[in-house]
Amino acid sequence: MTNRPENLFERYHAHIYFGEDTEAQARELCVGAWRQCHVGLGRFHRKPVGPHPLWSCQLSFDKDEFDRVIPWLDAHRNGLDILVHPLTGDALAEHTEHARWLGEEVALNVDVFEKR
After folding, report:
1. Which homologous superfamily does the CATH classification assign to the domain defined by 15-114?
2. What are phi and psi of 28, to 5 degrees?
3. Angle formed by the axes of helices 23-37 and 63-76, nearest 10°
4. Is residue 37 packed enough to be buried (19+ CB in 10 Å), middle (13-18) or exposed (0-12)?
5. In Å, how far are 94, 115, 116 from 5, measured between CA atoms?
6. What is the pLDDT along the chain (116 residues), one digit of tens a residue?
């Protein structure tokens, strides 16, 4: 069982993971979240970026939007895996001890943080 997101921090990112066969679905989900939940919409990365081992798109939102965004994403993700983490100023902790998931947990490349 994965750790479900909880609203405990001020600001958050959600990273929607996708592949070539699910890119259109991910785009629809992310644009839908931007329209319906008024989240910040980042770029669609068609390669691994930072600690993210899969293609991804980042959404940003704050604690006031959390209780609307998370259930909406969960209801509309259709099998896509989503990392949700707070913004704390400690990127390693954000992507490890504070990482929460909608769907299956994906092993992240946290070595990118440990090298700093």
Report:
1. DOPA-like domains (3.30.70.1240)
2. -65, -45
3. 140
4. middle
5. 12, 27, 27
6. 458 899 999 999 999 999 999 999 999 999 999 999 989 999 999 999 999 999 999 999 999 999 999 999 999 999 999 999 999 999 999 999 999 999 999 999 999 996 54
